[in-house]
């Protein structure tokens, strides 16, 4: 016990011997407001470090009782007041009073560069107005649960704002107010609107974006027609000079929708996700196109000569939309480097695969959904993807036999002589029993070990998602037996595991190495 106490005191002395600048940088990496408050109570040197060299503070998510949260709010205010050069402030939970929020922003108006506020406030609190009134130099603002009051030009007087994220507004904004956000923030480069309701939308919604805006993300945005007349079609049009990335996810409108971005000559990336659209027009400068779970009846895709990345996915009713997808792949540029065709494509045969191989000779990344009918039994001349390096395969292990799937993989390996990496992604269904779900990857692993032996430089990744029972994967005795067998069977195999704690993904990497590369 005495040795432990002496070791602790010596480590404390070593920390106190550090320069005050280093202590401040350490606290900036720690960031937690509670720990910073404890550091302030330690000694004068640590208080000087907080005052002059603390640049970042985070108030992480915590479940507290109301009276404890009020005390926690006072702690945040005390720490913020002790800083002189605070640049980043993040508040993620709780209900903050307007007075405390006003004190924070006023104290840091000259130094604060990034402000993330994902907490609830009383109705009528306008962070944009507070920042404008205090003449803040903030550059990044992320405002969650944003109860936006009526906007005017004075509230948007933030000349240094570069990034703006508005999430969860309960009040309906008019289209003119949304347009005001885009036009008045002259240095805005990245804008995200999430859960915003646009009120009194006309039949043609035109957003004139500032020349500085480069990225625009609209997620779960609703265009409410209100009492206006309801024409047959509603058009969303963008006019911008330097916009390069546009994402439209989960848009909700009362009538049919047409999206026009053909006037945006600088657009390079377009993402359409999770909503129905009648007509899509885009500029000829487009380099990346993602259509994810979106029903499109008409697509003007004559100018796709700059396209290098194409993703097409439809979970349901793919047969009705496949003709448009097929035309898109046929009209895409020969410069295409990355292609993803997912969702169980109907009538997709080896002729289509051969067309893709001939049409896109520079293709280096391909993703496909498993289909037993892709390769015929008597198929002799297979399409060749000579430049392909990465191959991604999706399979439903509930309806697929592992031996049939392994044979399908073998045909694809023969089509890709220069392949370096192959990722096999297993679909997970919540109703599927745990024993049945784990059985398929185990059997497939044993088959793949012999199947890819002639391809010594191909790295195979087998991935799946399972939200529960992650620990059970590694505690099963038969799983450990499988791992030991792969590691010690003498077949030049190595198996590595990696668990992503954020997304609950377990990853099995099966790599075949030559004997001289073995450790």
UniProtKB/TrEMBL annotation:
A Pfam short name: F-box-like
Domain F-box positions: 12-58
InterPro entries, A to Z: F-box-like_dom_sf (IPR036047), F-box_dom (IPR001810), LRR_dom_sf (IPR032675)
Protein name in UniProt: F-box domain-containing protein
């Amino acid at each position: 016990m005495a040795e432990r106490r002496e070791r602790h005191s010596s480590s404390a002395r070593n920390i106190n011997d550090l320069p005050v600048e280093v202590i401040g940088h350490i606290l900036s990496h720690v960031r937690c407001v509670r720990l910073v408050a404890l550091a302030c109570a330690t000694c004068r040197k640590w208080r000087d470090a907080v005052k002059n060299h603390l640049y970042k503070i985070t108030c992480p998510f915590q479940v507290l009782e109301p009276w404890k949260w009020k005390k926690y709010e006072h702690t945040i205010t005390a720490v913020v007041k002790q800083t002189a050069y605070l640049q980043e402030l993040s508040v993620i939970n709780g209900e903050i009073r307007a007075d405390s929020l006003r004190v924070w922003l006023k104290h840091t108006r000259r130094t604060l560069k990034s402000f993330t506020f994902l907490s609830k406030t009383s109705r009528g609190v306008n962070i944009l107005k507070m920042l404008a009134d205090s003449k803040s130099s903030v550059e990044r603002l992320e405002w969650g649960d944003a109860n936006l009051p009526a906007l005017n030009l004075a509230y948007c007087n933030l000349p240094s704002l570069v990034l703006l994220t508005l999430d969860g507004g309960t009040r309906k904004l008019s289209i003119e107010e949304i347009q005001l956000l885009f036009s008045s923030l002259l240095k805005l480069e990245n804008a995200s609107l999430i859960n915003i309701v646009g009120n009194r939308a006309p039949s043609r919604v035109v957003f004139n974006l500032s020349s500085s805006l480069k990225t625009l993300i609209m997620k779960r945005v609703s265009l409410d027609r209100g009492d206006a007349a309801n024409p047959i079609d509603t058009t969303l049009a963008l006019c911008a000079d330097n916009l390069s990335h546009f994402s439209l996810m989960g848009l909700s409108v009362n009538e049919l929708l047409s999206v026009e971005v053909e006037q945006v000559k600088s657009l390079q990336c377009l993402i359409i996700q999770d909503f129905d659209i009648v007509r899509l027009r885009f500029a000829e400068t487009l380099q990346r196109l993602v259509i994810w779970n979106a029903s499109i009846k008409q697509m003007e895709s004559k100018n796709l000569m700059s396209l290098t990345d194409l993703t097409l996915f439809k979970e349901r009713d793919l047969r009705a939309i496949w003709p448009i997808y097929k035309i898109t792949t046929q009209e895409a540029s020969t410069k295409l480097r990355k292609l993803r065709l997912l969702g169980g494509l109907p009538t997709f045969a080896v002729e289509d695969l051969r067309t893709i191989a001939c049409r896109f000779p520079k293709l280096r990344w391909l993703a496909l959904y498993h289909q037993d009918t892709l390769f015929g039994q008597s198929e002799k001349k297979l399409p060749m993807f000579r430049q392909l390096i990465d191959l991604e395969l999706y399979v439903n292990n509930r309806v697929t036999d592992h031996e049939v799937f392994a044979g399908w993989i073998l045909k694809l390996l023969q089509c890709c002589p220069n392949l370096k990496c192959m990722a096999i992604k297993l679909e997970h269904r919540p109703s599927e029993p745990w024993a049945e779900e784990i059985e398929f990857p185990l059997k497939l692993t044993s088959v793949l070990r012999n199947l890819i032996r002639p391809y010594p430089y191909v790295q195979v990744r087998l991935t799946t998602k399972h939200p529960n029972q992650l620990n059970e994967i590694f505690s099963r005795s038969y799983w450990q037996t499988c791992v030991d067998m792969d590691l010690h069977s003498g077949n030049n195999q190595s198996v590595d595991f990696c668990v992503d704690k954020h997304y609950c993904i377990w990853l099995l990497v099966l790599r075949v190495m030559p004997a001289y590369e073995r450790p």
